[in-house]
Amino acid sequence: MTDAVHYGIKENTENKTKTTDKRKNKRDLRYLPFLLPGAVGVIVFIIIPFADSARRSFLTNITLEWCGLDNYRAVFNNEAFALAMKNTLRFTAVCLPLLTAVSFMIAYVLSKLIHARLIRSVLLFPMAIPTATMVLIWQILFADSGCINGILTYLGKGTVRFLGEGSFWLLVGSYIWKNLGYTVLLWLTGIESISSSLCEAAKTDGAGEVQCLVYIIMPSLRPTLYTITIISFLNSFKVFREAYLLAGSYPHRDIYLMQHLFSNWFAEMDLGKMAAAAVCVFTVVFVAAALLKKVWDREW
Amino acid sequence: MKRKKFAAWAAALMMVLSGCADNSAEVAVKEMSADTGKGRYVEQIITPPEGASDGFGAGEFVNTDGKIVFSSPHTYERYTADGDGFEASRLNADILDETGKYYLIDIKTLPDGSGALIYMDSVYDEDDGSEESVPESIDLTYHFALLAPDGTTTEVDTGNSDIYDFEFTKDGRLFCMMQSKDMNGTPVLCEVDTKTAAVKPMSVNTSSRCNIDIAGKYLVLSSDTSGELMVYDMEKNSMADDTDTLEAFWKEMIKGENSNGMEPVGDICEGEENSVYLVCSKGLYRYEFGKTTVEQLIDGKTCMIGMKSGYGQGVSYITYEGDDSLLVQCADNTLVRYKYDPDAPDLVKTKLRVFVLEDMPELDSVVNSFRRADPTVDVIIETGMENGKTYEDAMKELTTQVMSDDPPDVLILDGMDIKNLTDKKLLKDLSGDIADITPEGGLLEKAALWNDEGGLWSAAGGFSIPAIVCDTGSADSIHSLAELAKAAEKIHDEKKGSYAMDLEMINSSEIARNAVLISGELSDKNGALDSAAVRSFFESCKRISDASCRKDGAMEEYDISRLFISILDSVSDDMEFHFVPSMLSSYTYDINAITSLKDYDSSISLKYGLNDDKHSFVPSLNAGICSSAKNADNAKAFIKCMLSDETQKTFSQQFLPVNSNCFKANFEDDIYFTTGMTISNDKGEMLSYDWNNTDEDEESQLMAYIDSMDTPVMLDKKTMEVICGNCANYIDGSMTLDEAVKAVEDYTSIRSRE
Q1: What is chain A's mean pLDDT, rounded?
Q2: Is residue B22 part of a domain?
Q3: In this predicted complex, what is the ipTM?
Q4: Cβ-defined contact of A269 to B424 (cutoff 8 Å)
Q5: Domain range spanning residue B154?
Q6: What domains can you pick out in chain A, each with its CATH number?
């Protein structure tokens, strides 16, 4: 009887648990309708077009006949693709650490200021300025007959072709200037989320400012660093607008980026090669992001 | 307080937003729908009356209570409406006697024979009754006179001003536009007393030369060069109110129409119920005073209105006959009636899409001919680079259309990378259709069918050829741009202060562009650019620029070819130019001009083409059919129409026709507007120059060059932009030669690797 009762109770408990789980599952599924609009957008505007690109990567340009891996072979043998890939990776390799380091230093200094909050809104100004306006200013400053060369000529120095050989560093400067404020904000938010009692306790135990920074603040900011790395990495691919507006569709070879190649291929109707290259670039970016995530997760 | 602040911010925002918008008045035009169902205006071309001379049609209408008369200042004839046609009679005016002392500029006569006229001293005196000679000095004064029904004239004292347009109202009042002889003053509206010939200026000034049209109680003053329009209310004796719509519409309608600023291109006439009709090659429109919309009655591309002849620009005059019927004088003075037929069915069945990078006036002529030949097909021109779009934007738009399986039917390939499009198999092979599209008289195949590697991918509608005219030594001794530069430098050193050459160039970029076209040195059928050739080309351009070029653009204002003016300059005492390299794109204005010049001065030599090993030419209006076109048959018919005699005969200024009949007709044609030219030089001396047809030897020489043409100059817009931009930077000194060449090399190396 007891057993029976016991079992009955157990069964009841199990039933209850099952009912609760079902309710819980039902409740868990309630979020789905809210996801639907976003999911539809992603499917219609990203997944389907990308699937179409993937399909086109195996077809000829206009006649859309099956051509196997010809487009992929053409991409891997394409010197312009190699140049664009090299420039894009070089740009990312230079900008990513530079932006991360400079923005962190500024954020750290700002975090020490009493009125840091007032400066926050100012930090977002570069993002609010339209790219075209910004490029116009850069052209006024850095064109062959621009202000800076005017000053150099006035001082008796030779002119510098900023939009020629110096265009890569001009583009780096443009990227840093545009993204610095936003990245500083991200760092600031991270720094402010660290409990001040940690540093205070460390200081009581005799730690200095540098030790607090190295052993408390920096380790605590790893999640922020991950976010910043991913955002900056993706933003570094978007610098094409600046390069395009600054020097057109065929800029100096140092700032010839992946998007230049895609844009020109599209204009020249090289759709097969473009689709194949898009698949390759997507794969590389996706794998890189996944690897980064895995490495990050493992360390934590 | 907060609310006030918000209101202030909102107002400021509104001001900013409204400031961003275009301030010019938007005109609502009710355009004709392609599917109008039943009812449309039907075109009827009026045949010249018996006994009328060739110039029938050239003269402004005078419509007095439905009695329509017009008089031609060219033929000295008067045409009176008679039923559906016209009757011709000789103009009766005492100044037009047999001595030919006066030259008629303009005349308008009323149904009773009275009227008014503008005339000046004739340039030529026939001193012995057979030969024309040039007087030592010419009086260029315009005389204005009233004409009585019996032909007697009474000169009107216009003081120190010239009258350049006049108009009679229905009740016989005469209004005119007057401007000081030195052209410094602003044009003034005046009324002339037809009894006393007294001139009474009115307080209406216009900023540009305006024509007068009468519309009921309104005087409409309109300029078909500047687009200015003013309306004067004769009853109130003041400017009319609420005419913004008409003013804005006229400006928009005339925009881009008057390319040479000389010919009339549009007109206005009175309609019924306080309305006016407006016409230009874009179409025929009706506007009712006080309304805010303008209604399109006829689309210009479907009828004679939009037909632009080689000489006439388009529509000259219009008048309303009543009963929904209008008379319009079109290009070449063809007189056409448009009468509304409520039962005429809509004809449009299909649509043909034509993609072009930039507007081409000659394409409008093809569309017009095609639509008149087959009104069931509506032609839609899609201009890729309109509204500030770049070459890349235009090509991306084309790519999008192709990708979405909605390509245009016809591609006008000028400025595109033709080889790339051919390689991509975007173009249909026309080899099998060649017999269908070739006109009866044949084609100049080297020019028309040049794009024939592995198939025939396009057909050119016209072409230009380079030539060099030289007054020192033989032009035959120059074989390249470098040699031309060397010759220019030599002359520059020998004759200090004189320009050695006119390359029809206004700025450094134009120098490069013209040099590309004239020399053909950077053209390769495969589209490749050789670095050594680019370097040599840049160097030559710089040397030519330093040695010789005239850069002030002073020749721009002339109606006739700048080449011709340059040549005249070179034979005048001033001797400004010694070399005139140019693209010959008009038989009358270019080829006849330079061959006649050889007759004038035997020291002048002419050579077609610059390089002996590359006989270059510039094909224009290159039309191909999209391989996936949905309307391929009509596209083929469109190309056939482009090459037809009717269309090709209208190509007489922008490029030479590829149709053999039309090209060779130039051998026989009389020079259109004059057989001679008299200009005065800076010293006030007169220089006479006979403008003759080409003789057989000259024609053989020309045909020999055309038969030997082997290098089409067809650089795409992007490449041309890169070459011209960097060459201009080098010429202007903002780049070294190495930098300029490297910039082109970088471009070509990246592009070829893509």
Answers
A1: 84
A2: no
A3: 0.75
A4: yes
A5: 28-341
A6: 78-299 (1.10.3720.10)
